[in-house]
Design brief:
Number of strands: 19
Largest sheet: 4 strands, antiparallel
Helix content: 40-55%
Number of helices: 10
Structural class: alpha+beta
Length: about 550
């Protein structure tokens, strides 16, 4: 089948609204082949966790870490999620990190929910605002996807206390939710752990060139998230600039104190020198008095003077020792003050360098964002005038699952792809204002239902109450739709309208995978005994 013929047929299918839509995957040139595109379960669920419940996971983990951020700790929630707070104050030059593990019993199946967990963790553990935490969570997940399996990169950047908890096969984050349980080691680089807040996470690492380039490959180029990151970095720059000013002010004050200590040291040296001169004179006088006393042993006065001079010499020598000790103490005080002064100077230098770095990164990214915004706008204008149609492509060839796409009929390029990747049996129908299909998987919290997909957003906005058979076909007859649903322990044929209102269900139990044939005489199915049955369209009896 040629592209031209394929596209003609597709347009015909959409226009006539009589057949399901299907596009051969090989005939589509996707524009996102190189994009970090997270594959989520976007379909019906048996149980839908509330947003508060999802955030509660991260909050509980963060509450375990918050009380003592400077010490290593491991926190666990119901054996489903673990945080390894990997910090080591004795190793320098590399990053500490938090490592979030998605354990094998975890049921998170959408990147947005995982980001909610990470975000709420950052809020409770490090006092981030919710808005900043949401932005960081986006970058953290993309960063870990970009460097998935790249243990060498993690080893170069992170301390041993971090890398000893990482493995080649699991470090980072897979783009496919099916790979998350038991095989995820999400690394969050830490910078200012002690103070918490704005600079706890090292934003420069999670927004490096490779990460940003990956984000730019999306159709919208992730403009909003990148703008928010720029805003964070600009505030980080302001904070570091203030710290630099404070440190510089402190450095000036400490320099004054150092000058005073140096003066004290010089004075102590002078006192030692004077004491040494005095001791030298006293020693000479003592020696001379001793000599005279020895020459005149019977002269009691000379004997007394000799003893007195010796005592004076010893006292002078003692004074030298005391002055020398005082000098040494003063030199130690000077050295300590010099260290404090140098520390303040270095802190000011470091904070200024960090401020400059964050500001430069922010400025560079703002320029790129401005350029990308123009590109996005131009693409939107261009796409609006493109000849287009809707179809489905295989998203999972092994399990024969599909997704709805809007594509350029002239060249086959995908304009927009639905996040719903679990359409079953390669069948979808156009209703008056949406698309109807059977979608879902019986994995984790997932289930299978009849759904409506919005044409504009391409997201599910309605689903049937009843669970649909995994092997059910979807058949259209006028404004009616037929499929196999579960009814207690049995399966029956159900009749729906395009609003997913259940109009009828058969009295006859059918096989789970029964074909459904629409004829002028009625609906032909296979009952659970393997016999063909003709059911009335009006009653399904």
């Amino acid at each position: 089948m040629t592209k031209k013929l394929l596209f003609s047929l597709l347009v015909l299918f959409v226009a006539s609204n009589l057949y399901s839509l299907e596009v051969d995957e090989k005939e589509i040139k996707s524009t996102s082949n190189t994009t970090i595109e997270f594959i989520n379960y976007t379909g019906p669920h048996k149980v839908i966790d509330s947003l508060d419940a999802i955030k509660g996971i991260g909050k509980s983990l963060g509450n375990e870490i918050a009380p003592n951020r400077l010490n290593p700790k491991t926190a666990n929630i119901a054996n489903k999620y673990t945080v390894i707070h990997a910090v080591d104050k004795n190793e320098t030059g590399k990053y500490d990190a938090d490592i979030i593990l998605i354990n094998k019993d975890a049921t998170v199946d959408h990147i947005n929910n995982l980001r909610h967990i990470i975000s709420s963790y950052l809020v409770s553990a490090y006092d981030y605002s919710e808005a900043d935490a949401n932005t960081l969570a986006v970058f953290i997940t993309v960063y870990n996807a970009v460097y998935r399996g790249d243990l060498d990169t993690f080893s170069r950047k992170y301390k041993n206390v971090v890398t000893k908890n990482l493995s080649k096969s699991n470090c980072g984050l897979s783009v496919n939710y099916k790979d998350w349980p038991g095989a995820s080691e999400i690394v969050i680089p830490l910078f200012d752990i002690e103070n918490g807040g704005l600079s706890t996470i090292e934003t420069s690492v999670i927004s490096d060139k490779k990460v940003v380039e990956s984000m730019k490959e999306d159709d919208d180029k992730n403009i909003d998230s990148r703008k928010e990151m720029v805003d964070i970095k600009e505030r980080e720059a302001e904070k570091s600039q203030e710290k630099a000013k404070e440190s510089q002010k402190k450095a000036v004050e400490e320099q004054k104190k150092l000058k005073e200590e140096k003066q004290k040291t010089e004075k102590a040296k002078e006192e030692v020198k004077k004491a040494e001169e005095k001791a030298t004179t006293a020693k000479k006088e003592a020696e001379e008095a001793k000599k005279q006393a020895e020459e005149n042993p019977k002269d009691k006065q000379l004997q007394k003077e000799a003893e007195q001079k010796q005592e004076e010499a010893e006292a002078a020598e003692q004074e030298v020792e005391e002055k020398q000790e005082a000098l040494e103490e003063q030199q130690e005080a000077e050295a300590e003050q010099e260290a404090v002064t140098e520390e303040a100077k270095q802190e000011a230098k470091t904070e200024q360098e960090r401020a400059d770095k964050k500001q430069n990164e922010a400025q560079k990214e703002r320029k790129e964002i401005a350029q990308d915004q123009q590109i996005v706008q131009n693409n939107e204008i261009k796409e609006a005038s493109m000849p287009s149609a809707y179809g489905i492509i295989l998203s999972d060839e092994e399990n024969i699952l599909s997704r709805l796409v809007k594509f350029n009929t002239e060249n086959g390029e995908v304009i927009k792809a639905s996040p719903v990747t679990v359409i079953r049996n390669r069948t979808i129908y156009k209703t008056s204002d949406a698309y109807i299909a059977i979608a879902g998987e019986n994995t984790g919290k997932g289930t299978i239902k009849l759904v409506l997909i919005d044409e504009e957003t391409m997201e599910i906005f309605a689903e049937s109450e009843a669970t649909v058979s995994e092997n059910s076909v979807l058949v259209k007859d006028g404004d009616d739709y037929y499929c196999v649903i579960k009814d207690g322990k049995n399966y029956v044929v159900a009749k729906y309208d395009e609003a997913l209102t259940l109009k009828l269900k058969s009295k006859v139990n059918v096989t789970e995978a029964t074909p459904i044939t629409v004829s002028d005489s009625g609906i032909i199915v296979t009952d659970n005994n393997g016999n063909l049955k003709l059911l009335s369209k009006e009653t399904l009896e």
